[in-house]
Inverse folding.
């Protein structure tokens, strides 16, 4: 089934069953109520004359975890979420993040196993005096994805020294 | 073409061509399936344009664009009076909207003194490329202000200059566009004392039109 | 009115008024233009063959106020807070700047009331540690509430506590998207 431009009826002309099936039945089958199978998902355009339901999903990991790795690592399960997207997603993550030394702690999402750049991350600059433990957040736009399932996993590292500590961790992906 | 409340048919009455055109053809053309589109919209942007369906008024729905723009270069300012552009302006996002935006701004920022670094955003009527009208005034704009800002106190947390460059984000709704049209959200920067040097990096902006 | 699978027409078979009303009238009324009532709403799925328009609301309380309470309370000016109808879930963003009189932690979280009751908690708060004499960075945190009573109105109200000192809060904002 696909969308087709609805016909323009002409007075006194016979309306065929095939015209109904193409112009009414099949077109209605492409609308939002026809494709809706879920609860609380967004409705997004995924192609010309095509819409899709897109999920908003969260993963929570409240336990404290630490790392002194200078390369990004996944602490426990991250946390992580997997969603099916169209051409993109918005990603929101929040956590208590701290660094015990005069270095930086970074905490941000890896997509499908890539290495998070600094620009995706919460970054806390330790001063080596007071290990503060703010709970803060960052948002990311991932609008260059291919259609399909993508996994967003929070990862952490330090720039040196450490450890970095992360607690009360949440990641939310809004598929688009 | 506009939406018309679909007619209620009466047994044994003829369906006229005009009724079909109003209640079937025109109404179908108002649905999301008829109007779903793809492709990037003009103007600055890092990724593609995504589209979330929302309302535009009674019996009117619309694609609400989602766009983003990143400027990662570390740049500085000592401007302390008005929010300003850095050497690389932005990031900035231009979308069409009838109501406003959900704005998500993120930045790494800090100063070399006990003063504050502030990253905020302005909103203005624009063309598709993010340029304001070529007039001095008379067009809609909402200047950057501290209420919207990501702000880093240089004295945080110990009351002395820490020269920390932390990275945070803020999420806010701004919803006061006068009429439906093209508007640009653009990040702007300043510090709270011109003896300070405020630094900004990893500047990333996401905007969902409402 | 509800969605029904549009009928498949058969050649030479009259279309009845009942079929028109079910397949055209009633189904059209379930599409986005049929459901839309006002500006500034987002469409979401609301079950099989059902959609709903949901609010995205925000509220700002800029006044600086303080607390020494070690359990979540209102400040002198309650909020910010918003009330909206939701499905099973809602996206919640909260933000503020905070300052502490000494080496403690300032927490801004939110409570949910109405169709469902959910207490404020540290694990979804925006929190700032230490910072005597200076203001913590303004930052938002995001939470997805997923155990709401679908179809009910819910009120999301910012709440505050201090771990051990006097904590002050300003530029307080909440944004909620019903899903």
């Amino acid at each position: 089934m696909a969308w087709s431009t609805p016909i323009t009826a002409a007075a006194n002309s016979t309306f065929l069953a095939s015209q109904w099936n193409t112009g009414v039945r099949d077109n209605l089958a492409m609308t939002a109520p026809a494709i809706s199978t879920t609860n609380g998902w967004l409705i997004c355009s995924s192609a010309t004359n095509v819409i899709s339901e897109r999920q908003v999903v969260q993963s929570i990991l409240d336990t404290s975890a630490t790392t002194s790795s200078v390369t990004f690592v996944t602490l426990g399960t991250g946390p992580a979420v997997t969603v099916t997207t169209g051409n993109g997603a918005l990603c929101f993550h929040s956590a208590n993040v701290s660094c015990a030394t005069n270095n930086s702690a970074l905490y941000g999402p890896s997509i499908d196993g890539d290495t998070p750049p600094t620009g995706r991350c919460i970054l806390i600059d330790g001063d080596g005096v007071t290990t503060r433990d703010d709970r803060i957040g960052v948002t990311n736009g991932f609008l260059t994805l291919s259609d399909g399932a993508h996994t967003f996993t929070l990862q952490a590292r330090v720039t040196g020294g450490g450890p970095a500590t992360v607690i009360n961790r949440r990641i939310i992906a809004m598929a688009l | 073409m506009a939406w018309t409340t679909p007619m209620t048919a009466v047994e044994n009455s003829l369906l006229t061509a005009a009724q079909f055109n109003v209640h079937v053809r025109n109404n179908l053309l108002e649905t999301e399936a008829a109007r779903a589109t793809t492709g990037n919209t003009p103007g600055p942007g890092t990724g593609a344009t995504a589209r979330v369906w929302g309302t535009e008024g009674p019996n009117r729905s619309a694609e609400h664009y989602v766009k983003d723009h990143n400027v990662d270069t570390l740049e500085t300012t000592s401007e302390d009076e008005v929010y300003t552009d850095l050497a690389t302006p932005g990031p900035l996002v231009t979308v069409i909207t009838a109501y406003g935006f959900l704005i998500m701004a993120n930045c790494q920022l800090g100063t070399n003194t006990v003063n504050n670094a502030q990253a905020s955003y302005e909103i203005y009527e624009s063309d598709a490329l993010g340029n304001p009208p070529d007039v001095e005034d008379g067009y809609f704009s909402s200047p950057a202000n501290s209420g919207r800002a990501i702000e880093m106190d240089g004295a945080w947390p110990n009351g002395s200059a820490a020269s920390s460059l932390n990275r945070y984000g803020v999420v806010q709704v701004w919803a006061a566009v006068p009429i439906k049209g093209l508007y640009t959200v653009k990040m702007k920067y300043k510090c709270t004392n011109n003896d300070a040097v405020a630094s900004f990096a990893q500047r990333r902006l996401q905007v969902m039109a409402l | 009115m509800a969605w029904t699978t549009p009928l498949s027409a058969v050649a030479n078979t009259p279309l009845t008024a009942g079929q028109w009303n079910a397949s055209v009238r009633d189904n059209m009324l379930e599409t986005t233009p049929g459901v839309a009532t006002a500006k500034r709403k987002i469409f979401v799925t609301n079950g099989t063959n059902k959609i709903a328009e949901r609010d995205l609301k925000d509220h700002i309380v800029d006044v600086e106020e303080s607390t020494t309470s070690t359990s979540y309370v209102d400040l002198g000016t309650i909020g910010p807070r918003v009330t909206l109808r939701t499905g099973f879930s809602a996206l919640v963003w909260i933000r503020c700047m905070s300052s502490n009189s000494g080496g403690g932690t300032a927490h801004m979280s939110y409570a949910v009331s109405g169709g469902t009751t959910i207490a404020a908690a540290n694990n979804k708060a925006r929190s700032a540690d230490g910072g005597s004499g200076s203001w913590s960075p303004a930052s938002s945190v995001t939470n997805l509430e997923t155990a709401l009573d679908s179809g009910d109105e819910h009120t999301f109200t910012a709440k505050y506590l201090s771990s051990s000192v006097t904590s002050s809060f300003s530029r307080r904002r909440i944004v909620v998207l019903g899903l």
Observations:
- Chain C has a mean pLDDT of 93.
- The longest helix of chain C spans residues 17-28.
